[in-house]
Amino acid sequence: MNFRIGVGYDVHRLAEGESLWLGGILIPHHKGTVAHSDGDVVIHAICDAMLGALKLRDIGSNFPDTAAEFKDIDSKILLARSYELVKEKGYSIVNIDASISAQQPKLKPYIPQMEQTMADVLGIDVDVLSVKATTTETLGFEGREEGISVTAVVLLQKA
Which residues bind a divalent metal cation (predicted)? Predict the structure, then answer.
């Protein structure tokens, strides 16, 4: 098989006084994600998509939140390690597409920096990595600003 597609999904609760890391950058906001790591839901969803495409389980199986070594870890490290696992299987990234669902903060101004940061970590062209953001029109846990979710799709090709 020359191509593999993976879908990733991640959710984190939002709380006052926590940091909000998305796509490898710190977003200024009064709420942030509650997590064992830095809680970067964008990177976590992308990692799950890459790992799932090659039946390498998920981010929690590879980097468990019960392990002290991953406490407060920068998710960019998890992204790089996940891609190393993909490359060990002989695959490379064709493209990545991620959608963030969050009522606040408005993320459009930060998307180019997120895309460039993650592309740099992965060593890929920024033109094959897309991040989008949407609100849920105040519906659901995202709309009530209780949490943030991300869905990501990755296409891998046998190198």
Answer: 10, 12, 44
